[in-house]
Amino acid sequence: MGAIITLGILGILVLYLGLYKAKNALLPTTIIGLLVALGFSLSLWNTDATTRYHGMVLFDRYAIAFSALLIVVTILILLLSKEYFRSISDNIAEYYCLLVFSLMGALLVAAYHNFAMLFVGIEIMSVALYILVGIRKSDFASNEAALKYFLMGAFSTGFLLFGITLIYGAAGTFDLSGLREYVLSSTTLSPLFYAGILLMLCGLCFKVGAAPFHFWTPDVYDGAPILVTTFMSTVVKVASFVGFFRLFSMVMVPVSEFWTPVLLIITIITLSIGNITALLQVSFKRMMAYSSISHAGYMLFAIVSIGPSSASSIFMYAVAYSFASIIAFAALILVKRKTGSDQFESFNGLAKREPMLAIVLTIAMLSLAGVPLTAGFIGKFMMFNNVMGNYNIMLLVIAVINAAIAVYYYLHVVVNMYFKTGEEQNPDRIAVSNSYTIVLGLAAVLTIVFGVYPDIIISLI
Amino acid sequence: MNLLMDNLFILLLIPIVSALILSFVRQALPAKWIALATSLFSLGLSIPFLVSFVSDASIQFEQSWTWIASLGVDFHIGLDGISMPLLILTNGLIPLIILASFKKEYKGGFYALVSFMQAGLLLVFFAQDAFSFYVGWEAALIPIYFICALWGDGDRIRVNLKFFIYTFLGSLFMLIALIYLYNQGTARSLEWDALTSLQLSENSQRWVFWGFLLAFAIKIPIFPFHTWQPDTYTHAPAGGTMLLAGIMLKMGVYGLIRWLLPVAPFAVLSYSTILMVLCVIGIVYASIIAFKQQDAKRLIAYSSIAHVGLISAGVFSWHSEGLQGAILQMVNHGLSVVGLFYIIDIVQERTGSRELSSWGGLAIQMPRLAIVFLIILMGAIGLPLTNGFIGEFLLLKGVFDFGIWYAAFGGLTLILGAVYMLRFYQKSMLGPQHPEGKKVSDIAGNELLVLSVIAFFTLLLGVWPQAILDLSEASVTSLLNNIKF
Hints:
The complex is a heterodimer. Chain A has one domain. Helix content of chain A is 78%, strand content 1%. Chain A has 19 helices and two strands. Chain A has a two-stranded antiparallel ribbon with strand order 1-2. In chain A, helix 1 runs antiparallel to helix 2, helix 9 runs antiparallel to helix 10 (226-252) and helix 13 (310-339) packs antiparallel against helix 18. The longest helix of chain A is centred in the middle third of the chain and has 32 residues, at 140-171. By secondary structure, chain B is mainly alpha-helical. Chain B has a domain at 271-485. Chain B has 22 helices and two strands. Chain B has a two-stranded antiparallel ribbon. In chain B, strand 1 (60-68) and strand 2 (73-79) form a beta hairpin. The longest helix of chain B is centred in the C-terminal third of the chain and has 32 residues, at 320-351. Classes of the chains: A mainly alpha, B mainly alpha. Chain B: It is a multi-pass membrane protein. Chain B: Residues 127-410 form the NADH:quinone oxidoreductase/Mrp antiporter transmembrane domain. Chain B: Pfam families: Proton_antipo_M.
């Protein structure tokens, strides 16, 4: 809980720093604050996982590991933000403050033990994001994205809330332990409960960007500033999955025969739609948006067949996916700054001009594609293994065909970097600042390390 | 344990270290010498293994560490009689391939990829654990993709993307099969021992069979999964083609012997007719197409499909002669295709063309090339006293024991092979001299060295095939005896 309080105070502090024009202190303060929050989270590692504040939150290892991941990813994104925010808007303090608040919501979602906390967490996380997406006030795409995200988000929150209400009506409690007892003890569950499950499923699928609730994703990811997109596709998506998984693994397992078919169809659609649409993209950013949909499909595997290793597989997958996404978007920021475009063509000839950047981006793409010796492979291996526990071979075959299709668009950018020649008008190098070098290097090294020795991650949960 | 002499892990480590060093070398001159030195060092270090190897059925030089404790995955490597010839093949061919690329002025990156691929290939041949096997299998794919797509010619981008996606899809099906097996045992394990002692029902064996077969058949390639192969071979740089045809396709055949046969024996037996028919179709079909080719590289690419068709038929024949022949012929085929592709590269470099129509009469200007070419060609055809003869004889014996008609059609490979290979020789070396060929110089230096080494081993293995057969005999026998139904 210390972490969440720290983040709350930090957000207000950052706002005040902005008020007093202390622009240079913003980034260091935020990062120090996040490190403190990280420390608070990790300090609970070896304590008993008991619920706190009348069952409101539960900091078990699952919550702590994910909180740590979310905070680390946010720190990496902030390190990338130094020059970026200044170049797109004057109100940088608001940026930092909103990111911190959004992260705070994400941590609540990771640790909730009561529907009230789930709802509050999702709202804090999302409201901050509605503003962040539209922060480029004069940009048409940014405004469109913000409006779309807000309308769809409000709608899905309605679904979620409606679902919570119905479940409360059936079980008489918001508490996850209470709900589990209700599910286990009653012989016949009230129809209200089933309706509630479906509505919550819709709401949560919207938040994680699963098809058929994914229509907002490409436009919002495309219209938002790249760093905000990075934040959305890593921290927000992972946090939503954490909440999703906790609800279904703690409460819904006994009634799995009711919701598994629904979720199975959602998973298959999500996998395939994201993939096939990503094939057709000419913009790297949009490709990443669609690929994030199909990655949501892979992560849903953990929920479709909940087993003893599901939690660690979803964690492994989230780690691999987050680091690879950060690399991809950081490289995109650098390339776009140089060429002014986020099309695949703007990567042409990058390997000649910036060999290290090209190698790092290649590692990220291979990790997203799930090639061995990268973290992405271990993530896929564990997810497939998870599904195999239920002998859902059809799902695996569909997943495998999708994974092979995905190679096409992940290698697209590699092909552009290595095998196509860029225009000779811009032979000068891309200026890569130290913070970018650190983030890119760290993320690439961790991707390889977790791919070669994944036990560090898997044994955590 | 001695640090160098019987530490198998060192053999994996050297290429990786060498790849890391080479990736920082920008100049061509030091890069090629470092690459050659480290590959020769690897070869030198493999000799003690060959010498101290006891040709019984046991797994030797075993090393095992816990890799991913929470998944029960070990890093387990070792050598037995089936992997030993392939270790020698890999470490023997890599220096030759590097030497053959000396003229191209490649920078460190090329040799780094070659070294990295060597590590992947060796891991495939060493692995006693399916996870390690799979990692090596994929780790060999990434570098060869970059080699072929970066230094290739023509339509290299599209062709190699097809190659990558095709083989990657096959590998993923194998991954499903592995995960399925992983979930079968009581103690979750991917060890070879554990997987082969599973009591699988007939039905589940069929599932596993298709998973494995897709991966291996695409890699080898067995008809009808061969469509990526001619294009990829043709548009790859010479070094890449040699790696692909010389060593990489052996991963597939090795996979059949090491994993598919013992893990899903019932399914292999029950599908053996289909498999044999596919192999034989591949042999005849590829031979006929090879005969029609004008592009020399494409010709050898198709001939390679025919040859590996026979090798796979030998594996599926389920007889020790067939398996022994397959192992011997893997080595032979590796030697001869590397030689043939190198010869094509040499001639192409001098005449500027790969078209047979613009070669003609080269023997007048290049007598030394004509002689080594003839020896290597005879090996590829399978003439007595060359290595190919013994290999194909054993393979056909195995196939004959399986069914006489398969042997009759499979045996066409010898006749058709002689037809297209001799046509190849005649069109290139004999006949009227083409104007382009008047000013070419004969092979010398590295070229002569590489080709002479290959020609020497072509003859040596022709008269002394026991060198390879002795290594693998006990392992093959025990493999066939221990298969549980």
